[in-house]
Specification:
Helix content: 10-25%
Order of helices and strands: EEEEEHEEEHEHHEEEHEEEHE
Strand order of the largest sheet: 9-10-11-12-13-8-14-15
Largest sheet: 8 strands, mixed
Oligomer: single chain
Distance between the termini: 10 Å
Radius of gyration: 19 Å
Length: about 280
């Protein structure tokens, strides 16, 4: 026996705020609450349509005059590491991976603060305190993991090097947020975490690793195009990125459809097996 969702999710739009990727632009997001018995099913469905999770909210950029942010994912079966990426894996072969329940620790927060202060001191998360950090990690209504990467120091004690909050979807792994030791740039820890998630997904038989948003021409987001078998969500469907240089940030009044049309085209999960 199957039954329908009791209440269709409601979608809302945030107030415009400065865009972190394109100077002089204002960003706006389309979002809905993620809660209740059907949270996991809704997250699976909307992740396939370019949405991302932040705590108990699913969101997708919906700017009035810009469609630059494109959801990106790696197609695991076709992925091939580049020569430099293979060097990164070899360089970090001493890293130990531990996947735990979504529970925040002081050690994680110390690494998070060092990362923000070094890389994103003027970003929207710059003032996040330990309680807000704990909420980011722990407030998840779906199947999530904290994946930690650590090394041993001279005394054998564990030293945290990188962390990724990861959601487990029905078709892949979604890297919600990652951070790493900013004082170790030579190890390319951010790249290593993505490469390792590709390996985790491959071992689990999951076809995709979701990376968040890629923005053509953005120095902050450009690294995602360095991974092979990358797909972007464009024009309502997933497609191979092709030549990254061929894409340009669409920033004009007709680059996005009205909100009502966008919402009408969202495909919602309407049934699930009873328990």
């Amino acid at each position: 026996m199957r039954h329908t969702l009791p209440i269709a999710p409601q979608f809302y739009v945030t107030a415009p705020q400065p865009c972190p990727y394109l100077d002089g632009r204002m960003e706006r997001k389309l979002f809905t609450a993620l809660q209740g018995e059907y949270a996991e099913q809704l997250n699976n469905a909307l992740s396939k349509q370019g949405f991302r999770r932040s705590q108990n909210v699913l969101y997708r950029p919906s700017c009035a005059e810009c469609s630059a942010c494109l959801s990106a994912r790696i197609r695991v079966k076709d992925f091939e590491a580049s020569r430099s990426q293979r060097r990164t894996l070899k360089k970090n072969s001493d890293l130990r991976r531990d996947a735990t329940s979504p529970w925040a620790t002081e050690e994680q927060y110390a690494l998070f603060r060092a990362y923000l202060d070094s890389r994103h001191a003027d970003g929207g998360m710059a003032d996040m305190d330990i309680f807000e950090f704990a909420a980011m990690i722990e407030e998840t209504p779906i199947r999530s993991r904290v994946v930690e990467y650590s090394r041993s120091d001279e005394t054998g004690a564990k030293e945290l090097a990188a962390v990724c909050l990861t959601d487990v979807l029905d078709d892949g792994l979604s890297m919600v947020y990652s951070f790493y030791d900013p004082d170790d740039p030579g190890s390319s820890l951010g790249t290593h975490v993505i490469l390792d998630h590709v390996q985790i997904a491959k071992e689990a038989g999951l076809p995709y690793v979701y990376l968040g948003y890629w923005v053509p021409g953005s120095s902050k987001m450009g690294y995602k195009a360095n991974f092979s078998a990358l797909e972007i969500y464009l024009g309502g469907r997933w497609q191979d990125i092709g030549d990254p240089e061929s894409h340009k940030a669409e920033t004009h009044p007709l680059s996005t459809d009205p909100i009502a049309e966008q919402v009408a085209r969202i495909s919602l999960p309407d049934t699930r097996p009873t328990k």
